[in-house]
Structures are given as C-alpha cells and as structure tokens.
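Customer ticket, subject: "Can you confirm the structure for Dihydrolipoyl dehydrogenase?"

Message body: Hello, I'm evaluating your service for our small team and ran a test protein. I'd like someone to confirm that this is what the system normally returns, since I don't have a reference to compare against.
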Amino acid sequence: MSKNFDVVVIGGGPGGYIAAIRAAQLGFNTACIDEWKNDKGGPAPGGTCTNVGCIPSKALLQSSEHFEHANKHFAEHGISASDVKIDVAKMIGRKDTVVKQNNDGILYLFKKNKVSFFHGRGSFAKAADGAYEIKVAGKEEETITGKHIIVATGSNARALPGVAFDEETVLSNDGALRVGAVPKKLALIGSGVIGLEMGSVWRRLGSDVTILEGLPTFLGAVDEQIAKEAKKAFDKQGLKVELGVKVGEVKTSKKGVSIAYTNAKGEAQTLDADKLIVSIGRVPNTIGLNAEAVGLKLDERGAIVVDDECRTSLPNVWAVGDVVRGPMLAHKAEEEGVAVAERIAGQHGHVNFNTIPWVIYTSPEIAWVGRTEQQLKADGVAYKAGTFPFLANGRARALGDTTGMVKFLADAKTDEILGVHIVGPMASELISEAVVAMEFKASAEDIARICHAHPSLSEATKEAALAVDKRTLNF
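Agent reply: Thanks for trying us out. I re-ran your input and got the following:
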C-alpha cells in the first residue's frame, strides 16, 4: 500500500534536503528521496555538493594549502620545516571523513525534523486523484504518493563530445577528487570554478598543471579588473592557463592522455599528461525522472521549465536548483528550496537573483555579488568605482597574504551599491557584508560610515567604499 505525503522531494542535495526540512517545519508530512550511496552502499544525502563538489573540494584545498604553506611560507614566520611530504591517501581519507560527517548530519536533520527518508532513485509513475505517485527504486521497489512534488535532482558533469569519463584517466569532478597519487603532469579543459580549484589543489602538491580554456578571456563572468589581478597571481604561482584554444582529438592510453588543440594564434599543439580533468560545465539531471509519464515539460537542454516562482508546467509540481534555470550554485538551490516550501504553505518565499554571491575558493579567493563594471557599461548605467588593495591592509600584512583588492561599484547619482568584487584573502567571508548591504539597498556611503574592527580584512571593504568618494584613509 502506498504511503501518502503532503510533500515529496526528489533529490537530497542542497536544494532538496533544505526544501524537505523547511516543508516539515511548516507542518507538512514530508518525504525526501535520494539515491547517493557511500562506499558501503548506505545512504549519502547531500547531492553533488556534499559528495563530489563543494565540500570535498574545500577539504582538499585546505590540505593542499597547508602543504604549500609548510613548504614555502613557514620560513617567513621563523618556523623550520624540512622534508615535508604529502600522504595523498591520508589526505583523501580526511576528505572522505568530512563528506561522511556532512552526510550523517543531513540524516540527523531529517530525524530531528521528522522527514521520512527513502534511499533510492525517485521517478514519476503517474498522476492520480490530485496527487502524484512516485516510484522509489532502492534495495526494494516501492511507491509513495505526494500532493506536492519538489524536483531537486541537480546536474551532471558535461563530457567532451566523443570522450567519455572513465574516472581513471579522463576525470569529471568526481574522479578529480579521488586521484590516488600526485600526477606528474595534469591537464584540465575549462578554467571555470572547478578547473581553477582542482588545478590549484594538484599544483600545490607538485603537479605540472596546464589549463586549456576555449574562451579568449580569463573568467569572463568576473569583473575584468578582478580577473586580471587573479590571473596575475595564478601565473606567479605556476598555474598555466592557455586561453582561446580549440580542443581537437583526445587520445587515452596506458601512459595517460594526449590532447591535440589549436592555440590562440592558430598553431597546432599537443599536450601530453598523466590525467585529464574535464570541467566544461554541467547539464541538468532529468534522466530517469520519467517526466514524460506525467507530461512534465523540459527545455532543449533537458532542464525542467519553471516560472519565476519555480512552478513547473504541472499543478503542484515544483523544481529547484541545478535542474532549472539560473546559476548552478548550492546556495541558490537552498534559497529556492526554502522559498518553494513557503509558497506551498501560502507564504511569499523570496529569492533575489541579483544578490546571489559567487565564490571561487582558490588562493587568492575570488568573490563577487551584483553587476560587473563591463555589465554596467553595456547597460548604459552611470556609476562610480572605488578600489582598495590588501597590500595596504594591516591584517593582510600580518597574515602574509596581501594579494588582491576590494572593488565597489555604486550608482553615480544615488550611490546605491550595484556590485562588489573581491580578490584576496577570505573573500568568501567578506562578500557577505556586501550581500546584506545590497539586500537593504545600501549606499557605498553607508558602508563607509560603519565602524569596522581593527585590524581586520573587512577594513578593506570599508576603505573601498570610501574610495567611491575618493577619500580612502589608508591608501
């Protein structure tokens, strides 16, 4: 006999598990279905983000950063460290522990909030009596029924045409997080978030890393001034990035991989490497959802078609996160998950796409919110800009990390903050102040007038706001 629920969430990633918890908090009898398995076959909710994305990559970035500090920067502090070695297996083991802690944390939250969890693949069976039957294919097959369905099935790595992921030589983000030893030569295709973060991890550990990027500009979505500053830092570190390339044939063998490509000058080149990480974007994951069984509308990319409030083409069926339009970011999925649960309850869930922060967790970190200078120019918006370098920040000097700057963009007439862009230490944490300010329609002057702790990196934010009015105090 089918189990009946008010809300059934398909997918336990950031969008799905958060939607389920919020729905349960609002008094709905809620179920969440997720098929991720750990190495013992047990449930591993958290989606790509927790299992093969945000969380494990940050664990490896942290480990590799410690290794680089010990090798290259401890001496500046008077700390002697010789013959520093990396145990890659132990590093990967620590990463796996961090992932499991997050998996277990989500299962605990389901129990705490009385969310019924089903371990298996969820798919539509049929519409029935104002509800939907959902098949759960796990150890045993069962069917549950929900009045409201929230689809949060995420995305998958996009493969190069004709070059399948084997996760041994040709790696997606999944395989890139499970490399067993430091490759002598590592190639990456795509210089986006995943490419730069994974490239940074293995470069720090000793790999000779080359990133091939098809676009002629570096980090085209990032403010141009910030992207140039970041590129300068990566070049100095030895992270090689070739722009404007056209990738041709990719051959794999027992020795590794060979990539034929044409460089920006039109010259034929070959790059040989031990491993290749492909990070050319992600595609919505709707395979196996059986959308056609209920007539759920998909677009040409396979994404679920939704309106501004995440309603699909079907009554009481919603979709959030990577499987719908908008940026493929875990925190965007979470906000949509909360908003949908609240809309089901008759409330007014809110997601402001203009104030979603973006972060690249390299060193230096890159973070931004709002529009870039090039976007404002293209939109014909009159603006003022202010920048402040971490080189002039006391806390950054004490940390020994003075790369980068904070940049403010404000409306020329009203002084409203239109964008904040940061490259430098702890940019991921500093950007939150800008998000709050923009949500409250703050002006650059508002930030300039707020007292910031001294010495702190956040003073660079205040000084950049002061710079909009050309009155920095420390530069």
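A couple of notes from the result: The radius of gyration is 24 Å. Residues 61 and 338 are 29 Å apart (CA to CA). Feel free to reply with more questions.
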